[in-house]
Design brief:
It contains four helices and nine strands, in the order ααβαβββββββαβ. The chain has a single domain, classed as Calycin beta-barrel core domain (Lipocalin, Beta Barrel), CATH 2.40.128.20. It is 19% helix and 40% strand. Pfam families: Lipocalin (PF00061).
Amino acid sequence: MEVPQPGLVLVLLCLLRAGAEVPVQPDFDTDKFAGMWYVTATASNCSIFLKMKDGMKSSITTISFTPEGDLAMKLVWPLLDKCQKFELLFQQSGQVGHYMGTSDQEKRELLVMETDYDRYAILHEAHHSETEPSTALQLLTRERDVSPQLLQKFMELIPTMGLTRDMLAILPKSGECPEGTGWH
């Protein structure tokens, strides 16, 4: 086994550090961002996601903001024979567009990397867990369909976040959980 050169180790550490620098949407506007979105593509290194990704379908998420500036996310996922509802709350981190959430054993970090508010948003989520830390990128769209150009833009971001294309799921449309089954 060959021992890496000290210089190579420093370069790798710098690359890992650079990958940790996630940009946040400049001048993020919560009023424009709130509302209904479709989760149309996701890339993640989470082992549970990787096992399930080929059978997943597009979901609906409704995003709102509390008076304190926290982000509330309500998701409706089509799972097997039912529509599963999830509610997540992320506290504002002090930087607009950057939110933190905690549960029993893990911390979650959610960043709005980029959005034009009318067509798409790209979210970065990091799970800081002792058992399995993971990273995810999500492409949200206001319409069910995603343009090839937007999908290409999303796919180009995947390797910059330390993920690979085989971790990508382009989620097909689902009529199983119509908009009326979600929260409004």
